């Protein structure tokens, strides 16, 4: 069964401190991507940004008063007229991106959510957020270009070994 409507999908998400909470009620409108551009890497303080975008109406925001939107920046994508990164005012976690696109002569607002904020990352409902492509691979950090990740030890916590998945 494909989960795609608010009646079928409800994925709770929150920031690090829990002050920002929201529920995702749809799958992304286009396949999620891993972005390696310098802009996204620096904004996420990570080697990659993983996000899925959907119409803003698909997100039920439960605690809007703790969200700060700033860091407006230029978008590199055709048809995008505005792009903004939003954060929790308490802990500073990135909570979503706001992207405004020009579609059929009108502006449509999308939110880009980060699956890393989903409260239950093992929930089968998040399969639709599996990344399908990489963007800006020419700007990829050397660390993500290393090969041999499959041979690395996987740890459940700081010390207990986890069995590696072999389903490639």
Automatic annotation (TrEMBL):
GO molecular function terms noted in the UniProt entry: carbon-sulfur lyase activity; metal ion binding
Pfam family, one: GFA
Record protein name field: CENP-V/GFA domain-containing protein
Database matches in InterPro entries: CENP-V/GFA, Mss4-like_sf
Domain CENP-V/GFA as annotated: residue spans: 11-147
Gene3D superfamilies tied to this protein: glutathione-dependent formaldehyde- activating enzyme (gfa)
Family: Belongs to the Gfa family.
Keyword Zinc: yes
Keywords (A to Z) from UniProt: Lyase, Metal-binding, Zinc
Signal sequence annotation: none
Source organism of the structure: Vitrella brassicaformis (strain CCMP3155)
């Amino acid at each position: 069964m494909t989960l795609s409507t608010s009646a079928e999908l409800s994925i709770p998400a929150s920031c690090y401190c829990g002050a920002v909470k929201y529920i995702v009620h749809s799958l992304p409108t286009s396949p999620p991507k891993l972005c390696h551009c310098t802009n996204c890497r620096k904004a996420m303080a990570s080697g990659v940004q993983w996000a899925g975008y959907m119409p803003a109406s698909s997100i039920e925001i439960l605690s809007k008063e703790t969200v700060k939107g700033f860091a407006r920046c230029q978008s590199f994508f055709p048809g995008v007229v505005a792009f903004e990164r939003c954060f929790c005012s308490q802990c500073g976690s990135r909570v979503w991106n706001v992207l405004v696109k020009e579609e059929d002569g009108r502006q449509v607002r999308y939110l880009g959510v980060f699956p890393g904020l989903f409260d239950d990352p093992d929930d089968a409902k998040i399969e639709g957020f599996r990344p399908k492509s990489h963007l800006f691979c020419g700007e990829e950090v050397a660390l993500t270009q290393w090969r041999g990740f499959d041979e690395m030890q996987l740890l459940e916590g700081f010390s207990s070994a986890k069995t590696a998945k072999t389903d490639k």
